[in-house]
Every structure is written in structure tokens, then in C-alpha cells.
Design a protein that fits this description.
Layout lengths: L8 H39 L19 E3 L5 E8 L7 E6 L10 H5 L2 H7 L1 E6 L15 H14 L6 E6 L1 H12 L4 E7 L12 H8 L4 H12 L4 H6 L7 H4 L7 H6 L10 H4 L5 H11 L21 E6 L7 H10 L3 E6 L12 H11 L3
Length: about 375
Amino acid sequence: MLASWKPGTLNYLHFSQEHFTYFFAGMWRTITVVLLIGLLAWAYQATQPPPPKICGTPTGPPVTAPRIKLRDGRHLAYKEHGVLKEIAKHKIVFVHGLSCCRHDAVIATNLSLELIEGLGIYIVSFDRPGYGESDPDTKRTVKSLALDIEELADKLGLGKQFYLTGFSMGGQVVWGCLKYIPHRLAGAMLLAPSVNYWWPGLPSNLSTEVYYKHLTQDQWALRVVHYIPWLFYWWNTQKWFPALSVLSGKADIFSSQDLRLLPKLASKELYRPQIKQQGDYESIHRDMIIGFGSWEFDPLDLDNPFPNFDGSVHLWQGDDDRIVPVLLQRYIAEKLPWIQYHELPGAGHMFPVADGISDAIVKTLLLGEK
């Protein structure tokens, strides 16, 4: 064996091992980079929502509702209730909540015919942008939706002033109207309006206390929608962590009264597919991003829109509401004494559909009854 050894053989073996080590180290670096790029590409794709299916386009749902054309070319679909607007004494615009549409006008659909005809009430509900048959608004803000409502009223000929009512996330929209179009309002009503925990006027200790009363999965979803909104679509479509409970209809978010009232909403199944037919992102996800994002104003800084007592603002809230906690509404009503606050003992979030409540609410708004 020694005879077969030649000078330089060990150096050659050592040289080959070094190159072998460098080769595999470089190969693993390349594989790692490729995998990382692939992972980033997958993550980016996972956070990107599919494009909306616009109503009336070749690939979108058909248009079946009456619609108006807005200043920027978008369309708003609407539905009229009550007496004809030409003979109406009171005209009300109703704003629906999260994952709802123009058909979910709880005040209109639960109002007694006697009251409608006796007071001459006309109500119009509409699909907010991205819902139902209203075009999405990729530039939507709190202000833009208030201006949409004003334009809807103008296109329908509702006059210089009209009443405004909003439920849940639709109630939150009313704050924007009180800020940007108060001169157009004859009165306003907020029904269990959603509260943004990051409004500056809310005491941090109170908002934190209420925030932690939510289910853990909802705490995380709200953090995501506020701090990293571009990730919110992925958060609600991935399967690793529980998404926002209100979107999955988890029973834990309903009070005992809510559970008793849910059968009254059975007719919603007839039109449920229409609500998000243009896509989840431009309806419910953008809704949450706007509602719980950083607002350009603080509702707790608003002045009384009716300093001459020629109108009124009412806030109705159930004290057993597990979706919109009552503690924050109490603080808001205390901070804004020009709001007439009505708290319903034992009531949950769905109290507007309870028998007789709609009549009482509307009488308070239109007639000042208590």
C-alpha cells in the first residue's frame, strides 16, 4: 500500500473534502433561499383577496334592485318601505349592520302598519358599498359613506332633511353622518352602535376592561384588523386560528334574549346568498377595517347637531348585549349629554326585532315620546 502511495494524495483528498463541504453548504443556502422566497410568495398570495364580482358585469351577479348612480360612477342599490315618499310626512334612511343588506331593515320590517300609515312614514334601506347589489368602494372612508347617504337622499328626492337610523355597524355609520352631514338630518337614532375601542376619547382603562370581556378569538381578530388590516382577510379565511366569532355565528356571542329572537330572523335565509355575493372582502372585511381602523375624528368630540332643539339624537342599547358592551355606551351618553340614552334591561343585541320595540323606537324619534 505504501508502494502505491504517491506524493500529494492526502492534499488531494483534503482539497476534495473542502470542496464537498462548500458545495453542500452552498446548496443548502440556495434551497433555504428558494424555500423562503416560496413561503413569502405563498404568504403574499394568501393575504390577497380575490377580485370582487361586480353586479351587472359578465362575471358578476345580476342586478335585480333599483339603484342610483353616485358621483364617482358607483351604484347604490336600495329598497323602499312604508307609504309613498311623495305623500310621506316623515322620511327615514336606514343603515344596515355587518353581514346584512337592504332587506335587513329591522325598523321597517317590524313597524306596525297602523303606525306607518298614521304618521305617514317612508323608509329607505340600502346596500352599503360591496354588499348586496351596491358597487364596492375601494376608497371607502367614514366620510365617504356619509356622503353616499346624502347623495342617496338627494337622488331619491327626500328633501333638505331626513331622519337617519342605523343598527350595529350601521349605527356606527351614523356617527360619520353626525360629523359630516349634520345639516341634512332631522333626527338620528343609533341602535346598539358598534364602538371602536381605539377612539381617543374613550378612557383606556374602560376600553381595556370591556375589550377583555370579548372572546379570546375576537380580541385577536380586533387586534389584527386595527394594527395590521392588510392581514385581516387571511386571518378570517385561514384554518389555524379561530376567526371573528360574529362572522361564524358562534352562539356564545348571543344573550338569552337574542337566542329567543333569532327565529324571527329566519326569513334572512331567503336572501343570505345575496349579502356577500360580490365577495367577502369588499363587504364584511372592508367594513371591519373601516369601523375599527384609525378614524379621522373622534365621535366623543362632536357638538350637538341640534343646538336649537329642532331635532334629537337617540342611542338605544340593551344591558345584556354581548356583541356591543353596554359600559362603553353609558360612557358615551355621559360624555355627550345631548344624546338621549335609552337602556333596555335584559335586552341583547337583537332587541330591535322584539315585538313592539320598533314602534316605541320610532315614536321616540318622530314624536319625542318616552
